[in-house]
Amino acid sequence: MVTGMELQDLNLRNKYFDAEQFRADFPALNNQSVYLDSAATALKPQAMIDATIQYYAHNTATAERSLHHNALQVTQTIHTTRENVANLIHAKHSHEIIWTRGTTESINLIAQSYARPLLQPGDEIIVSELEHHSNLLPWLIVAKQTGAKVIQWSADIDELSSLISSRTKIVAVTQMSNVTGFCPDLAQISQLVHQNNAILVVDGAQGIVHQPINVDKLNIDFYAFSAHKLYAPTGLGVLYGKATLLEQMSVWQGGGKMLKTTTFSEFQVAQLPYKFEAGTQNIAGIVGLNASLSWLNKWDEVQADNYLIQLSNYARSQLKQFDDIQFYSVEGSPIISFNFKHIHHNDIAILLGDQNIAIRTGELCAQPLMNKLGCHGVIRISLMPYNNQQDIDKLITALNNAIEIFA
Ligand code: PLP
Prior knowledge:
By secondary structure, the protein is α/β, with parallel strands linked by helices. The chain has helices at residues 4-14, 19-24, 46-57, 69-89, 103-118, 137-146, 157-163, 186-195, 207-210, 243-248, 283-297, 301-319, 345-353, 367-373, 389-406; strands at 34-35, 97-100, 124-128, 149-153, 168-174, 199-203, 222-226, 237-241, 259-262, 267-269, 325-327, 335-340, 357-358, 360-362, 378-382. Pyridoxal-5'-phosphate binds next to helix 5.
């Protein structure tokens, strides 16, 4: 008989990565268009689309409520997906995984349920200046509500040592910048944060896609990500929190199954994770995420990552042929941000769009970082293992065509 451990070994050995086969799983790539906007949202594999169709066409039911066959089945899928997400990020318990609408909602939940009751006037929340607005605005809002202060930090570890103090209650940082692709050293940051009795909130929206994360080993208190950037449906997010913290937090939305008992005068909240899941969950989204995770599981992530680094290096070497290009992103990152000195980023986006090349331009929801970089916006191409050299070659041709128009 094969034990669970042996089965896991067998699965690991069976993993492989083949760029063409990987790409073939994405129906959106069956045409001439080039998709270089995956940091905004990832394309969806057929396996995920099929699972969602199956749920809507044949297995529609609500979860954790009705007792008919489909309802029990979908309830089981939600439990399994919660466990799979816990395994993915190395959470100790599946009840530490809360379903939300996305990274943004997850971080707002932490700000309102954890930080708001805790913060006193004069307390400090240190936020890195790499952050997406979703990991800045929730802190600015809660600071306003409580009299706490948001402290700007460059994401440099030495600077953190000088900023952190007994007033620091929270440090919020990204796993990977959506503008520069920079990945702060979470291990060092976590150590410093906990030496100072603060808690660490990590925005994993970009990082989860490209870097394995171990929330337990890194001693991360809260971790947030969005399913849609990980090949899964939109409208679904994950909040991981240490059980000890989640248990002491007050609920932030009421209704549905977040309660054990209620009368007109008082209520008792449900246990984790349900106390934070008011209303019907995004069932189709969770079914889709489960399918995406099992599909992802068959690919060797180290090989996929190496392929992506090579592709990124190729893209950068090709982009370097443009004399007046200025890069903002780190070498080898799947996120490549740049500008041409004399052409507005949005003009490039429109001219590339006309040539069926999808990219992202603008502030990328990171206004403070744009100020720091000294620009009003950037051109961003973002790569996934479904991209290939032909995509980059088509991008370069399209950029040459666009630049010619301006010349
Ligand atoms: N954080 C980062 C680093 C992101 O790149 C994004 C989305 O682009 C978000 C947060 C917000 O994610 P969502 O809109 O799915 O909540």
